[in-house]
Amino acid sequence: MTYISEIGFLGTKAFFYTDIVLIYMIMLPFLMIFSIGFAMKHYYVLHKMTQVLLFFITLGMLSLFYYEIFLSNIFDNLFIVGNTESNQSFYFLMLHVIIALITFILWKSTILFASADKKRRALPGLYSRTHKIVGKRVLLGVVLIALTVGVLYRMLYVA
Questions:
Q1: Higher per-residue confidence, 117 vs 40
Q2: Neighbouring residues of 47: CB distance < 8 A, sequence distance ≥ 6
Q3: CB-CB contact of 97 with 89 (8 Å)
């Protein structure tokens, strides 16, 4: 397992697992759309399973990404250097954290409300329109998370 803490395969200063996080985050919006396709084809159980799975995998991937940033010297370098580029990286990181936090709260509440509505036999049905609207917001948040992870990766690891 020593290869995990070695330099990654994308040719940057990032660790191996950070490269995996980047690839996953780039794929995530497409995986979400694929999962939404299950609901559109009335495969609701598959839709629920894939959404829950994507939620937990994404939570783990972003935890790895934050571990790399906050517990390594990368985050310290944002404060030590003090130039404009490091300030922009820090503020962009804070924007990313806020977007991710809001998206995860919305995504989790959507999953929980959908499960409760399914038990009450209101989904699909009575609350389908609301679920679609909130789902679109979650998808937008996931796209923003993927974009900000890509930009942060470029700011922090590409020389």
A1: 40
A2: 35, 36, 38, 39
A3: no
